[in-house]
Amino acid sequence: MMFSYKSMFAAAGIAAFAGIAAMQSTSVIAADNAAKAIEERQALLKSMGDSMRPMAAIARGRADADKAVMVRHANNVAAKARDLSAAFALDTRSSGIENDALPAIWTSKADFNRKAAALVTASNALRVAANSGDTSSFGRALGAVGQTCKDCHDSYRAK
User: Fold this and answer.
1) Residues 6+ positions from 118 with CB-CB distance below 8 Å
2) If we measure between CA atoms, which residue out of 114, 108, 112 comes closest to residue 153?
3) Any residues with CB less than 8 A from the CB of 88 and at least 6 apart, and which?
């Protein structure tokens, strides 16, 4: 079968167009994935923060030591802590989406994961303390969780 120059140029044009469309489609998918990853991790971190506030009020004596409240919020923080490393699995540095995650999360991934694991350990201890109902041990455990949060924020969150 013989092709004319005209049909070869047409085929080349179609192939080039398809390639560009595929690249743009891949770019759009990557941007959508980055946006979704950022949105999900922000929701996870917001949920943790929303649980920390009422627990801090209890630990500081500004709210009644309600064991059910302590347990509910401690369980939430512990559950979210387990998901933290996975929430930062996708490197979103080049997404162009403004957020507080510093590039060091991905350039120092092993350290970030160690800090996330420390949060899991501290939040599990918080769950135990909350379930005991002892406000003194609860306050110490909450302080340890807060310190692990601070350690990570100091290194990996824009101020």
Assistant:
1) 148, 151
2) 112
3) 41, 101, 105, 106, 112, 116
> Tokens at residue 18, please?
């398809």
* pTM of the entire predicted model: 0.81
Which residues touch 96 (CB under 8 Å, ≥6 apart)?
Answer: 31
Give CA–CA dist 146/35, Å, rounded: 28
Euclidean distance between CA atoms 103 and 122, whole angstroms: 25
For the cut 90, the answer to whether the pLDDT of residue 19 exceeds it is no
Q: In the predicted model, what is the mean pLDDT of residues 27-39?
A: 83
Per-residue DSSP letter, 157: B
DSSP string, 61-109: TSS---HHHHHHHHHHHHHHHHTHHHHT-S--GGG----SB-THHHHTH
DSSP codes, 24-66: HHHHHHHHHHHHHHHHHHHHHHHHHHHHHHHHHHHHTTSS---
